[in-house]
Amino acid sequence: MPTSETYRYFDLPFCSPGHVTDKKEGLGELLNGDRLVSAPYKLDFLSEKDSEVVCKKRLSKEEVAKFREAVSKDYYFLMYYDDLPIWGFIGKVDREGKTDPNEYKYVLYKHIQFEIMYNKDRVIEISARMDPSSVVDLTEDKEVDVEFMYTAKWKETEIPYEKRMDKYSQTSSLPHHLEIHWFSIINSCVTVLLLTGFLATILMRVLKNDFMKYGHDEESAEDQEETGWKYIHGDVFRYPKYKSLFAAALGSGTQLFTLTIFIFLLALVGVFYPYNRGALFTSLVVIYALTSGIAGYTSTSFYLQLEGSNWVRNLLLTGCLFCGPLFLTFCFLNTVAIAYNATAALPFGTILVIVLIWTLVTAPLLVLGGIAGKNSKTEFQAPVRTTKYPREIPPLPWYRGTLPQMAMAGFLPFSAIYIELYYIFASVWGHRIYTIYSVLSIVFVILLIVTTFITIALTYFQLAAEDHQWWWRSFLCGGSTGLFIYGYCLYYYHARSDMSGFMQTSFFFGYMACICYGFFLMLGTVGYRAALLFVRHIYKSIKSE
Known about the structure:
Elements: H1 27-32, E1 49-59, H2 61-72, E2 76-81, E3 84-89, E4 91-94, E5 105-109, E6 111-119, E7 122-130, E8 135-137, E9 144-156, H3 166-170, H4 175-216, H5 243-269, H6 279-290, H7 292-305, H8 311-340, H9 348-376, H10 402-429, H11 437-464, H12 471-496, H13 501-540
Parallel strand pairs: 6-9
Antiparallel strand pairs: 1-9, 2-3, 4-5, 5-8, 6-7
Helix pairs in contact: 4-10, 4-11, 5-6, 5-7, 5-8, 5-13, 6-9, 7-8, 7-9, 8-9, 8-13, 10-11, 10-12, 11-12, 11-13, 12-13
């Protein structure tokens, strides 16, 4: 599986036209690491070429060594003709019958055969085949003469112009792939149904029993030992520690949740068709900037509901909670890419554009959202009064601690999505194409349902054990799936991908850490909201006076 290290075409000593012309790139394409230049092949419409010579060149020893290294690492080129992608390997390693790597033969392809299909005056399909009979031996460190050539053949086809992209989007929805996807969805659905049924019956029965018991025993309750969730009603709505951080995490999580929903809508409408280069990155940047008002509003209004006083500091924290780590990671990885001279290094202009978007759009919207949240003046809706002094939490067994509960909470939602994760990883890090967004949205909905249910269940068991510090616990339990996804990254890196070298490793783990952190905030918010609804509901239905 090819990995994510990309370089410019003329970084290798191919025939370079005297003056290399760069294509003007959009923001998304630059973020994507595309740096397109004009290639030396002239493919004029309907003009056949037969073994046309591009140039003759004498390769020095250093150039031979450079090509040989690229061939040994399976580098391939990617060109575009009329916005259609063409790719091919630049050479191959002949390993037949040889066990010792020193005996391998390295060859460079010097003849590309283009085959172009057209319908009336439109180009429909293009493919490049490397001529296996015309190669140059690169095995030894000595100067060689190369004659780079190309052939162009034109064929007529009946495929209409509108359908020319279908070929690329079908690769990921081949029948056997689709079967796996649907199997994983059915598998997840069954998990969800069992889980939901199980939880619903338990909670209904337990709560019903609790209500009955607490309803009947109003008179005789004084004599009995007080147990269960009803008896901590005076502490359940005691505000959590670190309110500012809690409010900021909720604000950021709500913003990321909105961002994900918008991206799914765009994907289902069909904006991210294959090779719409950079569309995903552009929309991520733009939507993130536009939704920052949501983060400001949610965070500030919630912080003031918790009777926080310093809302400006809280707003600053909200702005930096997700962007800060992302920016630091980006600075480090961009430096690595510049050191490697890879195309993943963003040019200075692009960095400026992103900084401008942040200062002129994201930050002002965040502040406006914060001011709106401050003026909303909503009060925290607690169905029961909070007592003056906190009740002591009884000693609890080890498995009721935060970490064991997080491990329990993250496992089920992760098991519902992990089959789909493989395909997403393969398309992000392995340049496969992912087009089945409908399946992805179903999986996302399942993920949300499982997260809410598991968090509600764990919150109930926590309150039943008279542990009333459920605020942070519900957030951490909801978000723990993000940590499981990061654990999956380790497995994927070692077992499924051929990544190697410092650059690929740091890019993979650096950016995946940011993505998993985003998931942590987003699912934590979902978990907390679900737990809050549940807790309000059960305490509303008892007369706690």
